[in-house]
Amino acid sequence: MRHNKKFNHLGRTASHRSAMLSNMACSLIKHKRITTTVAKAKALKKFVEPLITKSKDDTTNSRRVVFSNLQDKFAVTELFKEISVKVADRPGGYTRIIKTGHRLGDNAEMCFIELVDYDENMAKTATAKKATRTRRSKKSAAATEAPAATGSNEKTSCEASVHMHITCSVYKSFDTDEACRARTAFNLKSELETSNNSFKTVIDR
């Protein structure tokens, strides 16, 4: 009977399973984060954390024991030179599993497993993005950044509007005499130059 036998074989033979966990452990050590299924991540957690604890004691025997499990000298060097220094003050719990939903196709539960002490890069990126976020809209930001340009163009736009109004007023008048038209235009221009509120007065008419 199979009572209390909770070991997950992961649908593989012993040799296939050990080779898979060894490769996954090497990938985790090199890249600090990998994406896999939840079942494999839990099996990898039990496989790799004793090796990280063993790397805190940098002896020839420890390196040989870790190499017999990983079979990758570059991963062993990374583990003993960098990761062991980073996790020196942590008494276990070196990895973290975060679920990401279900895989399309077989609906397997997916997650990523990462080394806890190497989460600084993600935190810095999130902080930088948050710092550049503003609550103002683009239109209001552009209006605040260039008030001087708006003020300088105000006079030009007013003059153009006045000129259009003068032209329309002159040509809409019932007088057919050219001298009368010119006289009316001259009177309007002089009135606008002498009074600051003349533009509003002409528009209101």
What does this structure look like?
Strands 1-3-2 form a three-stranded antiparallel beta sheet. The termini are far apart. The chain has nine helices and three strands. The chain is mainly α and 205 residues long.
Order of helices and strands: HEHHHEEHHHHH
Q: How many extended strands?
A: 3
Low-confidence stretches: 166-176
Strand content is: 5-15%
The residue-averaged pLDDT reads 78
Note the main sheet.
Answer: 3 strands, antiparallel
Oligomer: single chain
* Principal-axes shape call: elongated
Biggest sheet, spatial arrangement of strands: 1-3-2
**SS class:** mainly alpha
State Rg. Answer: 39 Å
Helix content: 55-70%
- SS element count, helices: 9
- Rounded to the nearest angstrom, the distance between the terminal CA atoms is 102 Å
Record the SSE blueprint:
Elements: H1 14-31, E1 33-37, H2 38-55, H3 60-70, H4 73-86, E2 95-102, E3 109-115, H5 120-131, H6 138-145, H7 147-172, H8 178-194, H9 198-204
Antiparallel strand pairs: 1-3, 2-3
